[in-house]
Amino acid sequence: MSKTNESMMQRRVAAVPRGVGQIHPIFADHAKNSSVVDVEGREFIDFAGGIAVLNTGHLHPKIVKAVEEQLHKLTHTCFQVLAYEPYVELCEKINARVPGNFAKKTLLVTTGSEAVENAVKIARAATGRAGVIAFTGAYHGRTMMTLGLTGKVAPYSAGMGLMPGGIFRALYPCAIHGVSVDDSIASIERIFKNDAEPRDIAAIIIEPVQGEGGFNVAPKDFMARLRALCDEHGILLIADEVQTGAGRTGTFFAMEQMGVVADLTTFAKSVGGGFPIAGVCGKAEIMDAIAPGGLGGTYAGNPLSCAAALAVLEVFEEEKLLDRCKAVAERLTTGLKAIQAKHKEIGEVRGLGAMIAIELFEDGDHARPAAALTSQIVARARDKGLILLSCGTYYNVLRVLVPLTAEDELLDRGLAIIAECFDELT
């Protein structure tokens, strides 16, 4: 009997816990660049990119070749037992790419959550302090510490009880929801006044562009004031670039556009081109704060993933993907703003580079987030062959994370489907 999405969903429900969500009731069979074909043979345009993992597209030939070559040489030793060159080479290249005119070192791990966990560990060891300030709307992962940092209870930590202590929540600036830069800085000052002395705070962690929170872009003047605040109190600034990294925003790291540099930077997702790799890069003296044996992991910096990441960096150079990102961003932004002009439900088109989102409101009223319409658009687009993602604190944001390698014709087809969905549903 041939496989169908419905039959596969039945098997999934019986075998996989319900806590593992699934946005689209589709089972992928194979993919290429920006298109995915399901088990029934239907092709979809991929505007999700595996949630920002596939900036270089599905199965980029250069990445596939690099992994195939590595597969025949070495798949695993555990770097802490027997080291291998691809790990060191990747760290050297990341050190050169992360913003900051100072000596850097890089730790490789496997997931974004793991990178953030280690960044906090390093910050605590380097400062001798324990507290961390994170922001409203933040998403930093699903492990226990990162769930505490993540600024959204449902669904990520619902029913799991209280998360680890020593975490304090500041306001992320967001003009459309009435939070100014002054409001955000004042919220940090309130933490210092009401909850924890600055000398007890090891780090402030921030996404330069929020991911799950709705693609809110941190204003440059806010980042400058945040950097000054950290310097004043000896607090480390951690930039979580798990979703913004690897060229999504038009520079390899979004902090390159923020006018200031972080002490520690986390990265993952598209750096591996579809293979699981993540890491922390920071000032050498901070990264060396933990004694030998305090950092690492069995699969951390796996040889296959290192080979893939090194190929990703080459693809960015050879195909000039940062320039391509700017072209993709312009095409998407122009198309989405044309749709906005016809539909008052779209309150804002925003983002940085090709990290673009639109926020929906009922009748254009910014006090009434349109979560239901957002969900309907995602479902209708799927029916028409386009894979979209939603996000946002109020579940009312549509985000686009299409591979930077997508052809203009495919981008236009995706935009046309989004336009059709709005025409039919509003």
UniProtKB/TrEMBL annotation:
It catalyses: 5-aminopentanoate + 2-oxoglutarate = 5-oxopentanoate + L-glutamate. The keyword Phosphoprotein does not apply. Its EC number is 2.6.1.48. It comes from the Bacteria. Keywords: Aminotransferase, Pyridoxal phosphate, Transferase. Its cofactor is pyridoxal 5'-phosphate. One of its GO terms (biological process) is gamma-aminobutyric acid metabolic process. CDD domains: OAT_like. InterPro entries: 4NH2But_aminotransferase_bac, Aminotrans_3, Aminotrans_3_PPA_site, Class-III_PLP-dep_AT, PyrdxlP-dep_Trfase, PyrdxlP-dep_Trfase_major, PyrdxlP-dep_Trfase_small. Catalyzes the conversion of 5-aminovalerate to 5-oxopentanoate. Belongs to the class-III pyridoxal-phosphate-dependent aminotransferase family. This is 5-aminovalerate aminotransferase DavT. It comes from Stutzerimonas kunmingensis. The gene is gabT.
